[in-house]
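Exam revision sheet. Question 4 asks you to relate a sequence to its structure. Input first:
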Amino acid sequence: MSNFSVLSQYDEQLLRLGMLAEEYFADDPNTCLLKLRQLAESLTQMLAARTGLYVSPEEAQYDLLRRLQDSGVLPREIYQMFGEVRRAGNAASHAMSGDHRTA
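Answer key, structure tokens:
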């Protein structure tokens, strides 16, 4: 059973990304971080769409997260967690970094 199984009731793509992150964790924490970043971005875009705040898929994740927090949709703690995933995903993508602790 996946830690992300609860996502199946919301969206199959979210479930798939979560399960892939779990699958890669042991052998490839870098790829795990990339999948977690994709999961967070998809989740953020879905949340923005459901609250009428979605602008475009080209909007930067940083900007979208900031807008969701400023509008009261994301509590500060959740905003910070999504920011951590964004930064770790950036490092995994651009610097090819990522260890098990971060993942």
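Marking note for examiners. The mean pLDDT is 94.
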